[in-house]
Write a structure and sequence with these properties.
Layout (H helix, E strand, L loop, with lengths): L15 H6 L3 H10 L4 E3 L11 H21 L4 E6 L8 H10 L4 E5 L1 E2 L2 E2 L6 H10 L3 E4 L5 H7 L5 H8 L4 H15 L2 H4 L5 E3 L1 H4 L5 H4 L1 H6 L5 H8 E4 L6 H10 L5 E2 L11 H8 L5 H16 L5
Parallel strand pairs: 1-2, 2-3, 3-6, 6-7, 7-8, 8-9
Antiparallel strand pairs: 4-5
């Protein structure tokens, strides 16, 4: 049996568990209060990726069926991202296609499954399928491996150790590294139409592009890391409504690559918080792109 992911403890804090399990009236009431018309649902970390292959396949299918049923019961308010059995590479592309057929608008994965990085060649069929099916791939943070935690995230009390390895630092470094490895592996040279989504303002990558660009020549890529970020990556806010982060993002990528998100229920900005943040865009057109049309275009949403 796999060791339970310690970050699951965050799901049980406060009323998180109750909110996560509510796929009906309570969630919609919160959306109404925040001024959100449509939410895209996804399974919380660690998904099914740490599970043995057979179990990962079974539970991924079950999660996708449940999410599809939830969307079908309230199609004006919900869409969903699929869960994939990444620990069973031969089954990933097939489940992605099945999930797309039943209405999922994209998928959410993590940067590592056991000892396999997301850029491992065994997943290239998955990325080919995602590109062909026009299914954006959201790379969500996950708990760093035990070896990395032992080397870099221990030495404090258990709670501080976990916080340092997750929301305080490790989650985001891990996800940003997974994205950077995809670029260096030539994934977007092979699949130029593939679209990746990163939360938390790009998981640190947007703030280190000057240095990361130097890797392109060494890795023999066709373009700079910055170019891939501007053409193959969308960036979401994950509830971090900080104008300084917005201004930096706009300095290294384009407004048509930025998407509003709340990271519910872990972040719960109020309607006033959202409205105040939107005032930092320079025009109504930019505000509409960020808050609605970019996501609608990326995920093929008909929400008019």
């Amino acid at each position: 049996m796999p060791i339970p992911d310690e970050s699951l403890a965050f799901n049980e804090m406060g009323d998180h568990q109750q909110r996560l399990e509510d796929l009906g009236a309570g969630r919609i009431a919160t959306m109404d209060a925040q001024g959100i018309d449509v939410s895209i649902l996804a399974l919380t970390p660690p998904g099914t990726q740490p599970l043995p292959p057979v179990e990962a396949v079974r539970l991924s299918c079950a999660a996708n069926d449940l999410a599809a049923a939830t969307v079908s019961s309230n199609p004006s308010r919900f869409r969903s991202l699929s869960t994939l059995p990444m620990s069973s590479p031969p089954d990933v592309a097939g489940e992605l296609a099945r999930a797309a057929d039943i209405g999922h608008v994209g998928t959410m994965v993590y940067g590592r499954s056991g000892g396999l990085f997301l850029d491992d060649p065994v997943y290239d069929d998955f990325f080919a399928a995602a590109s062909q099916l026009r299914q954006p791939v959201f790379i969500h943070p996950q708990l760093p491996s035990a070896a990395v935690r032992d080397a870099s995230y221990r030495g404090f009390d258990p709670t501080t150790d976990l916080a340092l390895a997750t929301f305080g630092w490790g989650w985001h470094l891990d996800a940003g590294l997974a994205a950077l490895r995809l670029i260096l592996r030539g994934t977007f040279d092979r699949h130029p139409d593939l679209q990746i989504v990163l939360g938390h303002w790009g998981e640190m990558l947007l703030f280190w592009l000057d240095r990361a660009n130097s890797l392109s020549r060494i890795a023999g890529l066709q373009r700079s890391v910055s170019d891939y970020m501007r053409s193959n990556f969308f960036i979401t806010t994950s509830g971090m409504l900080n104008p300084a982060l917005l201004q930096h993002a706009l300095s290294v990528t384009c407004v048509d690559r930025l998407i509003f998100s709340t990271d519910y229920p872990f972040q719960q900005p109020t309607r006033d918080d959202v409205s105040s943040f939107l005032e930092h865009f320079s025009s109504d057109e930019e505000r509409e792109m960020f808050s609605s049309s970019n996501a609608a275009s990326l995920y093929g949403l008909d929400i008019g």
